[in-house]
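Final report, closing paragraph on structural work. Over the funding period we assembled a curated collection of sequence-structure pairs, and we close with a single example.
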Amino acid sequence: MSLHFYQARPRCAAGAPQAHPARARLFPSAQPYGTLPLTWSLPLMDEKTLRTLEYPKILAQLAELAAFAPSADKALALRPTSDVEIATRQQAETREALALLTTHPNLTIGGARDIRKSLELARHGGALTPQELLDVRSTLSAARELARTFERLAGGFPHLAEIAASLPPPAGLIDLIGRAISERGEVLDSASPTLAAIRSELGIARERLMGKLQRMLSDPAITPFLQETLITQRDGRYVLPLRAEFKGRLKAIVHDQSSSGATLFVEPLGVVELNNQNRELQLAERDEELRILAELSAQVGDHARPITRCLEAVAELDFVFMRARYASQLGAVEPALHPFERRRGKEAQAAAHPGSVIRLYQARHPLLDPASVVPIDVELDPQTFILVITGPNTGGKTVTLKTVGLLALMAQSGLHIPAQSGSEISVFRSLYADIGDEQSIEQSLSTFSGHITNIIRILNKATPQSLVILDELGAGTDPQEGAALARALLSHLAERRVTTLVTTHHPELKAYAHATPGVTNASVEFDLETLRPTFRLTIGLPGRSNALAIAQRLGMPEPIIQSARAELDPSDLRAEDLLDEIHRQRDLSRQARLAAEQARQEAEALRNELAARLEAIEDERGEILENARKAAAEDVEQLEEELRQARRSLSRARQPLEALKPVESALESLAEKVEQPVERHPAQELPGGERRAPRLGDRVRLRSLNAKGVVTALGEEEAEVQVGVLRIRTRLTDLALSGEEAAPTEPVQEAAVRLPVETLSPGWELDLRGKRADEALEALDRYLDSAYLYGLPFVRIIHGKGTGKLREAIRQEMGRHPHVRSFESGGNKEGGEGVTVARLKNA
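Its predicted structure, as stored:
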């Protein structure tokens, strides 16, 4: 079994490089250099639970994104880890890959091939075919290109750079194979001097042989005996097609005959020696080619271990890229992972809380259609670790359980989860689920017996750091006994401090959850008007019993309904009526809150519209005044010219100039007024327009980036803003409310990328003067990546005029750069041909 399945952490010798903790070995027998045998390993997740929660289907979808077989194998072998450090690292790798693919969407592993069998064969002394050697060369070349890429990007993607540290292939092997094998899989003359000499002699011998046979074809004494005037081959020897009836007319050796017997393929005695020489040289060529292939294979075998590490690094990078692409497809986000913490305080002591955290907002089941699935919020408060969910059949109870369980497994596997940003969950040591029909005909077990057998197995393995999921607890048997057993099971799990999610139809468990510390009710809602479930989860309230209401809505006679109600315990009826009233008041409160929020948004939209109109009026006023100022400036300039002409005329006439001084003074005063820029009047604060803090769903502008986005998460001092396909975390002081209408607080489906805004902006300009072309292009590539990530609409690249070589190199690079929409020379006041202005695809 591979290392990955055990989630083991290798312990390295002092000073030796430690293997990547989350990396599966492609070759289990090949240990990393410098590592010692494993001293301990983490427990495996329960395989039955993985199947129950449909985790293998997630892996199958992930494997479809693989670029080659080794990374697909990694995906199918992926298992959740219970180590917080490993899970956090895997999440960071996925986050970095998502950011990298956002700026470099065409980045792939290139021409890497699955060369594991070839390496194993070469390691045991076997000879590889030319195509297998080409696959080795292609894989090493792809690794070399990836290594060069990460050398340039290492600063921004430290976790990926650490994986890429094993990428550089053995020196010289790529060129060695390239000199010996052509792209078509042929051994080249340059493979060895001996092969070149043999092929030279072979060419001469073949030319002599073909020349003599060609003369025979042209000989009038021989031509009539031939079936056709052509030269062909039989058993590696060149022969002529002789008509069978002239068999004795030409002295030759018969090698073959046609299927009809009318043609004999013969080798004239006069060319036997030449054919022998040609054949000997062919065999010598074959032997030399085999020797060369064996020598190259030996080189591959000698470097099998570093090539294996290189292949593992390529597969690991592709695996991380797959996780990033999968997150992009799901519109998934990185969850915050928490270790188990011992709670403090009276409430925690009373509830004996295990220290688990589950806060999933707008969570969606990843295998359901995102267009139709209803997102749910599952948030356990600090005092709660057991959730009892009640509600009607087909209402979404089981989907809720599977969603929480599957998202927990994904989070502990380094996969982003389909939920809203800000979701948090603990890293559980183990996870167990009992969902679905456990009936077994072969073992003579009923559905109830199958469930109980599985629950007993779970109870024997669960710990306070486990997550237990139980569907339809206490079902399949006598209701009274089932309810008693379900209550006893929940009490047992609560005493053992095991985080548990259960669904049930037993009303007794509603009261138990209400009265027991650490346990909370939840329900899935049901619409009595449409007789359909809404699939919304409500935490804090138990589900209502809708059987009589549904029967009444479907037309059941009223006397039967009243008779049924009379059979019920009056206290149960009062509880149900009270619960109905709570749900009704809650619905009314929600509707009122939504109406108030809609009215607030409409009022704010009107206010923003009015503010925008005032801004437009101010813009128009400023434009009119600016045009008037420009016209006045032209008039002043014309008056100054006329005054200069009058001064020259008076000077030529030797007349005094004192008369012009009052005019000059008045003109200078007028020029000063004209030169003053038009001041923009600040917008007046409208009633009700006091500044407020941003809220979820608000459209805001990031001052540092001059980019607009939607607030998706809020903290005390920071906020997360969706800008295009990026999610950017910034300080609240950097946000300004936009003039647009607030957006709904639905989860954004684009890929989530966390990028810190606290770092300095790359600026609007890059000065490359004095740099060599290769240095300038490398700096340009880094700068364009940063400018694109920061949302700059355009940038100015200063390269100077000089000979124009640097300008041409920079513009050629811009023409093929993925972030550049267009570029042009700078204006007359910007530096002309010494500057290139590039408009980025953010614009």
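Confidence is low (pLDDT under 50) at residues 1-41, 346-351, 439-444, 740-759. The chain is about 45% helix and 15% strand. We thank the funder for supporting this effort.
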